[in-house]
Amino acid sequence: MKRTSRDIRTANRYHVLREIIARSPTSRQELATATGLSMATVATLVGELLELGMLTEVGFEDSAGGRPRGLIAVNVAGGTLIGVDIAETYVRAELFDLGLNVLARAEEEVRPGARTPPEVVAQVAAAVARVVAGAGVDGARVLGAGISMPGQVDRESGVLVYAPNWDWHDVPLLGLLSGSVPYPLHLDNPLHACTAAELWFGAARGRDDAVVVNLGTGVGAGFALGGTLHRGVSNSAGEWGHTTLVLDGRLCHCGDHGCVEAYVGAPGIMLNLRELSPDSALLHPGDQTATIEALGRAVAEGDPVAVTVVRTTARCLGAAIAGLVNLLNPQVIVLSSWVAATLGEPLLAGVREAVARHALRRPLSATEIVLSPIPTDPVCLGAATFALEGALARSTAVAKSRITAGL
Amino acid sequence: MKRTSRDIRTANRYHVLREIIARSPTSRQELATATGLSMATVATLVGELLELGMLTEVGFEDSAGGRPRGLIAVNVAGGTLIGVDIAETYVRAELFDLGLNVLARAEEEVRPGARTPPEVVAQVAAAVARVVAGAGVDGARVLGAGISMPGQVDRESGVLVYAPNWDWHDVPLLGLLSGSVPYPLHLDNPLHACTAAELWFGAARGRDDAVVVNLGTGVGAGFALGGTLHRGVSNSAGEWGHTTLVLDGRLCHCGDHGCVEAYVGAPGIMLNLRELSPDSALLHPGDQTATIEALGRAVAEGDPVAVTVVRTTARCLGAAIAGLVNLLNPQVIVLSSWVAATLGEPLLAGVREAVARHALRRPLSATEIVLSPIPTDPVCLGAATFALEGALARSTAVAKSRITAGL
Predict the structure, then answer these.
(1) Chain B: nearest CA to A220, how far in angstroms?
(2) Any signal peptide, and if so, which residues (chains A, B) (predicted)?
(3) What is the pLDDT of residue B400?
(4) Which chain B residues are closer than 8 Å to A364 by Cβ?
(5) Where are the alpha helices (DSSP H) in B52-143?
(6) Quick one: pLDDT at residue A22?
(7) What order of strands is seen across the sheet that includes strand B69-74?
(8) The CATH number of domain B79-193, selected from 3.30.420.40, 2.170.120.30, 3.40.190.10, 3.40.50.10800
């Protein structure tokens, strides 16, 4: 069991910082109420964050009859963070202030023939350089960059163990990047990034237990349990896309049959469409984005083929999500990523219906199902929070070594 | 988010007490190493447990060159705990000392016609009275009783919301029991009890994340994540039996189709046998226990029908467990409850094979799959740990009110 006092202290610090970002400016009293932590704990954590320059004192508010309360806010001048989303067809970088507001954005297109590690590394470096230059910030003030790449990631070593879409195996991505991106780097996958984004800024903030269902080319489920991202023992928790939905069903690209992803990932949805209407004008062979966007527009216009495809997809997705509701009994299920955003309310309505048909009554009645409320790229945002967490961890280590050295 | 400093303190206290029970006698230094907590935290928690009479000082051990280290052990004379397992066909009560050793056991048979709440309450009261009398302990030393009953349980109110096997709805079980069982009572279900048993005494102790797969008449999956039982927001986490394994498959008693439980719960296994060999002598119509036991004996003797049935069952179970491996990336999956114990190694071997076929490589390589190592009824043991946790919580509350009152 590795959950130590230091982990708990770190979790409490994230928890307090999240609430400050949400409420800025706020008082220690309000934070204690919001987090359930004691005033003493909140005061200590706020003191540390002030000393690190992440917060700033911004004045006082009256309290009914009592002493005026000191107000604290995020120190937006305290540094910047970068989040990078390496996706199937693009590399996107965003620069954030410490309040997690987007300051600048840059995107590079990934051409189908240009998906080797050196080519992708060059594109990440270019996007990061553009975003830093574009915001006109001093590079020295960048506290770190979080890099998200689909696949199985070893966070400690910075190695991308396996990226199914591009068939990368054991690529030392952070090692390759460190030559051209001069900031502390943190590697993880978009599933964990999206879940962190919901925890810091979205539907999971302030909830006990949330499940983030990520619908893109691949499909996954991120878990925010007790206010913490559940990563699993080798950082690969969340591979929900390869849960069996139909025993001996459709072949999945993972080699198994009947996986959830084979029915509700973007290529699976294209297959749902092709099986129903092989000659549909909605079908853009070889182009997932165009097909899903065409489906999204057609379903809004009441096109019967599109309505049926979204209903079929929602039926499979809802049956699978009902399993998550029964299994984990979360407060909220968040539908995230581009397929969820594109198919939107019609997908959500179908999913709610199917979940209600399949889930058990008691956990069902405790669970809300929502579309992600995050208006920007949740992957960049989540990746930036990894850089923020890394900066906090480093500051603590520096502070500790100073204390040890007697400074 | 409700994880407060007090929750963390409580979790740390359980963690320390678990390690003391495992290692008794032990030193504070050894506990700090085993738990990853600081010496100061361990010393404080041990001090509290000593004051509560749950531990006792038992001497010193030499430390290489340093001061002799104080040894502490569980105070077996500090009180007793009761665990009650209300099952389909029996009510079993066990009495434990504070080291969680069984001191006495009593069992009442539940006849098929005698499953109303008053009848079951009378049987629980009888079993508890027999176990206390049988051990010759002073009733005043019983610190509490944990009651496990299959179904959906509201712990705060002590209401059994829904028990599918007996079709009980909203039965105020603790209220009914409190008239005839004169101890502090704690209600939960066997899934949570088995998971707690693995955490306190079995394969999940000292592991980061464990999944306990419970195979009986019903089927469930308990989660011990970060050393804590994950209950879900309305205490119904773990309803894995009603995860869809085969879309539009076998009708399940829950009303849905294709649920895991319909293939690998005891009645599902009977159906697997009937489909393969309708006239098999192994089949005891209407008697799950006899059928599963006959299967267990026959598979050990290499009977081809039994081997095929266990293989079919393991194939379904493994496909479903692979989903849990991919989803949660745990360190260990524990097969628990009477069906797992009866079918034993042949089932385990088949499950391991099927999981390896269905799970993704990275999470698979991080996960061990084992049979529960708990030699006694894990439900009674787990229920007793709920009583132990309750006793600790009450003692803390009393200590706090004393401090508040200035005593």
Answers:
(1) 8
(2) none
(3) 57
(4) none
(5) 117-135
(6) 83
(7) B26-27, B69-74, B55-61
(8) 3.30.420.40
Q: Which fold has domain A206-371?
A: Nucleotidyltransferase; domain 5 (3.30.420)
Residues 357-396 of A with CB under 8 A from B: 357-363, 365-367
Q: Which pTM does this prediction carry?
A: 0.87
- B79-193 and B203-371 agree in CATH topology: yes
| CATH tag, B5-77 | 1.10.10.10
In this structure, which amino acid lies at residue B168? Answer: W
Which residues from A are below 8 Å from B234, CB to CB?
A: 329, 362-363, 365-366
Give which of A139, A190, A135, A136 is closest to A160, Cα–Cα.
A190
- Cβ distance A327 to B256 less than 8 Å, yes or no, reads no
CB contact, 8 Å: B253 with chain A?
Answer: no
A84 contacts A91 by C-beta, under 8 angstroms: yes
- Of the candidates B207, B237, B247, the beta carbon closest to that of A246 is on B247
A327 to chain B, any CB pair closer than 8 A? The answer is yes
Q: How many CB pairs under 8 A join A and B?
A: 199
pLDDT of A3 over the 70 cut: no
Q: Distance between CA B220 and CA B239 in Å, rounded? A: 5
- For chain A, the structural domain boundaries read 5-77, 79-193+378-403, 206-371
A182-206 pLDDT, tens per residue? 999 999 999 999 999 999 888 888 7
Q: Using an 8 Å CB-CB cutoff, list chain A residues near B200.
A: none
- Picking from B236, B256, B312, B325 by the largest number of A CB atoms within 10 A of its own CB, the best residue to mutate is B236
| CB pair distance less than 8 Å for A227 and B367 | no
Compute the distance between CA of residue B211 and CA of residue B73 in angstroms, rounded to an integer.
Answer: 29
Mean pLDDT across A95-119: 90
Q: What is the ipTM of this complex?
A: 0.84
Closest CA–CA distance from residue B13 to any residue of chain A (Å): 12
User: Which chain A residues touch B362 with a CB distance below 8 Å?
Assistant: 152, 161-162, 234, 236
pLDDT the model gives residue B398: 58
Hey, which residues does B209 pair with through a beta bridge? B225
Per-position b or e across A151-165, b if 16+ CB within 10 A of its CB = bbbbbeebbbbbbee
Q: What is the CATH number of domain A79-193+378-403?
A: 3.30.420.40
Distance from CA of B69 to the nearest CA of A (A): 23
Residue A285 pLDDT: 92
Tell me the pLDDT tens digit for each residue of A324-348. Answer: 999 999 999 999 999 999 999 999 9
pLDDT of residue A271: 97
* B203-371 CATH pick, 3.40.50.1370, 3.10.450.50, 3.90.870.10, 3.30.420.40: 3.30.420.40
Q: For residue B132, which of B167, B93, B164 has the smallest C-alpha distance?
A: B93
